[in-house]
Amino acid sequence: MLDKEGIAKRIAKEVKDGYYVNLGIGIPTLVANFVRDDISVEFQSENGVLGMGPFPFEGEEDADIINAGKQTITTLPGASFFDSATSFGMIRGQHVDLTILGAMEVAENGDIANWKIPGKMVKGMGGAMDLVASAENIIVAMMHVNKAGQSKLLKRCTLPLTGVGCVKKVVTELAVLEIVDGGFKLLERAPGVTVEEIQKATEGNLIVEGEIPEMAI
Amino acid sequence: MINKKVQNAEEALQGVKDSMTIMLGGFGLCGIPENSIAELVKKGTTNLTCISNNAGVDDFGLGLLLQKKQIKKMISSYVGENAEFERQMLSGELEVELTPQGTLAEKCRAAQAGIPAFYTPAGFGTEVAEGKESREWNGKMHILEEAYKADFAIVKAWKGDEAGNLIFKGTARNFNSCMAGAATITVAEVEELVPAGELDPNEIHIPGIFVKRIFQGEQYEKRIEQRTVRKK
Q: TM spans, by residue (chain A) (predicted)?
């Protein structure tokens, strides 16, 4: 079974040379730490920066340079700043190659829910609806089951949707799954995890074809 | 040169009245028009509809207007960092319209550019699409979103000149750039206001035609919401 860093490490392998990547808040943010340093990748933050670098050194933080999580950041050579409409133009116009975000539920038809729990505080969708509706290549980083032990990979989402039929791949602490016609196709198992354990934690239709390899991280 | 300079926030916000719709730039606390917000608090204008990506924090930004119950309705994409906001929303005192961030930005830009409405895929199949026209374009479903109509747009820039030209810094550009010219009257507050001719025309982000009144803010706190650093 993987921890959150492990999930981020596995997703980092999906980041290819020349990609522009948008990272959501939470596990996705960790992905930046594990991208190979022999490839060229630029990270986009939807509040208006391309070419994000690491957090600033103490004393060098600038109130005018933040990421979408409102954290102080730095920029790398080649970076640019732009307004919010231009930023979402990059996203809607499919200029961003890969979007990695978290979710509360994913359904076997690719639907995703990650912005609202009725009856509890509603913080808003931020840029999530724009991202999931537009991106060609969306990977969801999430835990396979919730704190109550219930599966988050469902036949149909029960929470209000963020987008329909948009998720392509899910990486959890247990598995890598691809969303295909008819369900979640199991691609890889986390180290030490059996197909039966993944089956038990998946409420949606799990498609298992042949031997399922263990992830190499 | 058409001179847009006014002396201070009080003069810049003349004509702001109860029940108006006001756009305010900023992302979180980054690039918010601090001096104009302070002036709105001082004026005590109420029943406002505010279009702003976020709603500030409890004791800064739009949170100051919420504390004084000056806002009737918030139109935002994310409002997570404000306990008073949550209280007013759950008690029904505050009306809230949540809009996807890219749609919010485009509704501003559309207003700025004279486009009455546009199609976007964001929100199709979700509760955001309820009551809106939907249509297939290039094999994909989209929903029709309308440009905002606002009485005032209040934006904040780094530098400006008397002609109303604006230059932003870093990610403080965000919605400020999209809102300039998107309302009947646009007010710009800047950290540094210079005479016309001092800014290089090649470097202008927003041309002065979009700005009606400009002033230099008295002071800027520029509070950081999530100070995140690494060790040397």
A: none
Q: Domain of residue A175: give its range.
A: 4-41+95-207
Under an 8 A CB cutoff, do A55 and B228 touch?
Answer: yes
Q: What is the pLDDT of residues B44-84, one digit of tens each?
A: 999 999 999 999 999 999 999 999 999 999 999 999 878 88
- Site of tokens 């995890």: A193
Give residue A122's pLDDT band: very low, low, confident or very high (50, 70, 90): confident
Please tell me which of the candidates A73, A84, A121 has its beta carbon nearest to residue B174: A84
Residues forming a β-bridge with B193: B160
The CATH number that applies at residue A165 is: 3.40.1080.10
Apex A47 CA angle, A45 and A49, nearest 5: 50
In contact, A159 and A129? CB cutoff 8 Å: no
CB-CB under 8 Å, B78 with A163: no
CATH number for the region B9-117+147-216 comes to 3.40.1080.10
- Residue A88 belongs to a domain: no
Q: Look at residue A8 and tell me if it is in a domain.
A: yes
Residue A29 CB partners (closer than 8 Å, separation 6+): A23, A69
Query: Is A46 part of the annotated catalytic residue set?
Result: yes
Q: How many domains does chain A have?
A: 1
The residue annotated as part of the active site, out of A42, A46, A173, A203, is A46
What are the chain A neighbours of B178 within 8 Å (beta carbons)?
A: 83-85
Instruction: For residue B103, give the nearest of A47, A66, A130 by CB distance.
Output: A130
Task: Give the global pTM.
Answer: 0.96
